Structures are given as structure tokens and as C-alpha cells.
């Protein structure tokens, strides 16, 4: 159990590429923090720096009350779960679990107790005498988790642990990781590029972009009040609709007085697909924004559908969420409506929220 | 596999059988000769069936000693050759694993320079550097010693390259997992790398053992004492220019005995050998 404290952490590779550009982050004891971002945003580098697998160019990382900058990975009291599991192929599952503990010269009774406990928790008791090659992907993932569990570390580090699993297993393991973490209350740092995984797992969601933190907060906070255009488009699927606001408003969009005007910097408006509805044939309600769309395509997901359409005069494409099955033909012109309360405003220059 | 009806299969078999005969017959004939008395051998034609001297010939060679090479028994020769072949094979494997380990898993200054240095020695066969090597061995007093037979042949660029290629296929996450599990470099080598290289080591051992067993030029130079001869060198010394001077029956016995150990190694390690060459288990 420990807090992880990152202070102005930077990573500069040989050749001057700056992968992490000054990240400060405080992970509370027992919290589940998910680092999410597109590939190349520095999230894995950051995690590997916490693990000690990557040197720290400047700044400090503290686990518990210890600054760990100069400590070997094994001395940092952490356990890591890798994307490709990284199990020792020539050892049985039991040996895989024991290896780290044996290297610590732990008493064999204690080792056996911890292995049994982890095996029970992860339901891999029957697999203990098999080798990783004889296990399925999901089972290997469990063993990799087990190897982290038996260490009883101050913190778990997860490096995209579910990316190699098929969709169904991924959902199942996701729930399991969450359940285990709640039960053990071990501080966890989890890296993923999958925003759905990030949303469902995190206590605190940290969105990284180009080596910097774009926004950190609870998942719903990040979703409902994205701090920048980047976060707005990265979190949520389909992405938030963005409408660049010109001097004369936006073609095809009628809005209540004053909504689209206003002084200040050039703006981009954003609205999520689920905050829009098709309003064809309805009389305009007062105070609502109305969009004049030409349908370009329909995506039927099952429980919901997304109708895509463009605003006139080469305007941007927007997505509208429709409950159930929608059978609009592409090419149809129709009206969509949205409540301005859900409108997000961003400074187009800086990308920040206004 | 080609599975065509008609003449193809029998024809293929005929060709293969002929091939086997061409390879096997000289060895069989050597064996026949090793069971005959010297007088029978010197009066052609040699019969095609084993003679009655088998026990006498092999007994004399193994336990009596052969006059032309100073009365040294073939057991001594076999022992010498075994020491040399094992020394070369194991030594080469040991050195190349360590150097490949250093080149692949550590970052140190001039790493690639060292790697290329090793690589370049591939172009320098023993024969090219034989004079300086000989001088060094003389200065170190290693003539007529096992160390003198083994050491100069131990460094191996080929084996180093082979292990380097294999080590590079080991996922970096495995190395990192071991670091997090508290395994230092040597423990990682012992617990993870060596077990994973098992099949490679076995395959290489077979190749290198035979390489060591059949060494000719270097043992010829570095051993003067008959007691230190390897079996290949002893064979050479047994054969005289004058036909009548040569104990042909002993030469044949020694030849057969010289062939047996490498054949044994190949047969016993065949399964491992093939796995090492084919498999890329990770």
C-alpha cells in the first residue's frame, strides 16, 4: 500500500526525442489510475519509468515515501503485468509464480501460502503444473496477474494487459481486474489505449497527449467536461461532434439568439452524439439548436444506431445517436436537434475548454 | 512428399539405395579389413566377409599398443581425442554464450565494435593465424598439453553469432519481467536464458564435437609426444610410405574406432539436434 508521486518527470531519449515532457501526478494510496492516450503519447514510457525499466531524465518518482529514481525495478516494491504476459516459457505456472519470491529468499512455507492464495483468487489452481505454452491467452493473463499478486507489492503496474485477448475475454478480465483491485486495495497504475477500458476501470482517468497530461479526473468528469479538444475527441465513441464556429455562425445550424455570437477568440463547438436527436417533422422547440443534415450513412450497433450527416455548404459531419434501429436512407435531408446545455466550447487556437 | 503412382517411387528407392551403398560400402570394407590379418590384407583381393582376427586385432589395438606410434594403445588415443573434442565443444559453447550474452543484453561503450571484431574473425581460419598461435603456445609452454590442443580452437565467431541471433528473439518483456522478479544478469542467464537455449546448445554441441574430433592440422603441430596424439594424428603416423611397413589391420581398426564416437554422438543426440535446428520455441 503506497502512494505514487510523480514530480515533473521527463524522458529524453538519445537523439533528443522527448517522450515525456514534464508530468506531475499523484496517485493516492489504493487508487486505480488509468493512463490513456493514443500510441506514442508517452503513457507506456511513463509506466516503465515508474517500474524502473526506463531511466528518468529529470524529475522524481516516489513510491510510498521513497524516491525510487535510482532503485532497480526489483527494489521498488512493484509488480508489473505485461501486454504479452512475459511468462517464463520453460517453467511451470507454479515456478513462474514462485520465481520472484525465491529470488527474494523468502521462506518456502510463505511462498507456498502466497502461491496457493493467488491461485485460489484467480482460479488457476488446476493449472499450476502446466507450462505457459499449454495455456490459453486468458489463462496466461491470469497467471501473469498471479505473478504480480504473489509479490504483494506496494503498487501494481499494468501495461495494456488486455490488448492481446479477444473482445469477450477482455470484458470479463476487465471486470475481474477491477474486482481484485477493489478487494486488495493495492495502488494501481494502468496503461491502455482503449478508452472504454479506461472509462470502466479508472478511479482517476489521466489522458495523455504528446508527453503531457491533457486532463486528469474521474471518468465522468473527463467525459462531461473535457478540458481540451483532444480529450473531447479521444474519450467517447463515436467522438464528439465538432463544429468550427465562423464569423457568420454555422451554415445549417439555427440556434437561439446569442448562442453562436459572442466576442473572444475563434471557437469550436462540441456536442456529443447522444445529446442530439433526430427531430424531423417536429416543430422547433424554443431554446433548442436545430441542425439541417444530409444523411451520409447509418451505423447500427444493435441497442442503438448512429446517423451520420453533413451540414450544408461542405460543413462538418456530425453523428446523432438514435435509440434502437434507424432506417434512414443516405441522401435524405432531415433535421436534428440538441439542447444547448450540453454544448462544449473550445478555444480553437489553444484547444482548451472555455 | 511426392506421392505419384507408377514408376516414380520404386525408381526413387533404387536411387536412394544406391546412394546408401556408395556411402556405406567403404565403411563396411574398412570394417572387414579390420577383422583380417595383415597378410590377408596385403594379398588382394580382400574378402567381402569378416575374418577371424577380430578379437585379436581389436584387443591388440585397444589394450596392447601399436608399435609404429610408440606402442601407444588406441584407448589412450581415444581418451586424448575425447578430451580435446569435449574441451573444444564445451569451451566454444561457454565462450560464445557469454560473448553473445554481453553483446545482446548489455549496453557498453564500443559494443558494436566488439561484435564486429568477433564477426571479422570468421574470415580468419585457423590456418591463417597458425604461426603466431604456435609461437604463443610454445612461449606459454603448452606444447603437448591438453590446454594447448584445446584453447586456440575455442573462440568461435559462428557459435557467437548463432547465440546472438537466438538471444535477440527473446522478447524484451521477458528480460524485464526477470528484472522485476529480482533476477540479476547472471541469475537471468542461469535461470532463463540457458534453459531456453537448451536445444540450440545441443545442436551446436553435436556440430562442434565432430569439428573437434576431426581436427587435424592443429593437433599435428602442437603434439610431438606419441602419448598426446589424437586418434586422427595417430592414424596419419601409422601409415608409412612403404606399404609393407604399415600395419594396415591396425590402421583399419583405429579407423573404425575413430568413427564410432562421433556417430554415437549424432545418433544419441539426433532428436535434440533436429529440434535445435528446426524449432524456434519461445
TrEMBL record, chain A:
GO CC terms, sorted: ATP-binding cassette (ABC) transporter complex, substrate-binding subunit-containing
Cellular compartment(s): Cell inner membrane
Membrane topology: Peripheral membrane protein
Span of domain ABC transporter: 4-235
PANTHER family recorded: MALTODEXTRIN IMPORT ATP-BINDING PROTEIN MSMX, SN-GLYCEROL-3-PHOSPHATE IMPORT ATP-BINDING PROTEIN UGPC
Any one Pfam family match given in the protein's UniProt record, by short name: ABC_tran
InterPro entries: AAA+_ATPase (IPR003593), ABC_transporter-like_ATP-bd (IPR003439), ABC_transporter-like_CS (IPR017871), ABC_transpr_MalK-like (IPR015855), ABC_transpr_MalK/UgpC-like (IPR047641), Mo/tungstate-bd_C_term_dom (IPR008995), NA-bd_OB-fold (IPR012340), P-loop_NTPase (IPR027417)
PROSITE patterns, per the entry: ABC_TRANSPORTER_1 (PS00211), ABC_TRANSPORTER_2 (PS50893)
Entries under CDD domains matching the protein: ABC_MalK_N
Family: Belongs to the ABC transporter superfamily.
Protein name: Sn-glycerol-3-phosphate import ATP-binding protein UgpC
Signal peptide start-end: none
Main location: membrane
Keywords, alphabetical: ATP-binding, Cell inner membrane, Cell membrane, Membrane, Nucleotide-binding, Sugar transport, Translocase, Transport
GO aspect biological process, one term: glycerol-3-phosphate transmembrane transport
GO molecular function, one term: ATP binding
Automatic annotation (TrEMBL), chain B:
Residue stretches spanning the membrane: 12-32, 82-106, 113-131, 143-163, 199-218, 248-269
Keywords linked to the UniProt accession: Cell inner membrane, Cell membrane, Membrane, Transmembrane, Transmembrane helix, Transport
Main localization of the protein described in the UniProt heading: membrane
GO biological process, one term: transmembrane transport
Superkingdom assignment: Bacteria
Record Pfam families: BPD_transp_1
PROSITE patterns reported in the protein's UniProt record: ABC_TM1
The keyword Ribonucleoprotein belongs to this UniProt entry's keyword annotation: no
Reported function: Part of the ABC transporter complex UgpBAEC involved in sn-glycerol-3-phosphate (G3P) import. Probably responsible for the translocation of the substrate across the membrane.
Xref: PANTHER family: ABC TRANSPORTER PERMEASE PROTEIN MG189-RELATED-RELATED (PTHR43744), SN-GLYCEROL-3-PHOSPHATE TRANSPORT SYSTEM PERMEASE PROTEIN UGPE (PTHR43744:SF8)
Family according to the record: Belongs to the binding-protein-dependent transport system permease family.
Protein name, as recorded: sn-glycerol-3-phosphate transport system permease protein UgpE
